[in-house]
Amino acid sequence: MKEEYDFSGAEKGKFYIPESEIEIPVYLKVDVKSELTRIATSKKQSVSELVNAILEKELGLL
What is the pLDDT of residue 62? Predict the structure, then answer.
């Protein structure tokens, strides 16, 4: 490591991402993912859209 670093030209917040925009990875069992993919395909939705709809319904948000 250098003894000193020059941050005079640095840009504050250049790589900042608001917490509300951070994607949370969700790891599904293989059989669950396969079934969700099958259902999403039949409904012409993405797996993410389907999972969000299922979770919103389950949580009473709809």
Answer: 60
Residue 15 gets which letter from DSSP?
A: T
Residues of the chain with pLDDT under 70: 62
pTM above 0.70, yes or no: no
DSSP 3: S
What CATH number is given for 19-58 in this structure?
Answer: 1.10.1220
Structure tokens at 18: 């608001």
Domain chopping of the chain, boundaries: 19-58
- Check the CA dihedral 49-51-54-58 and report its sign: negative
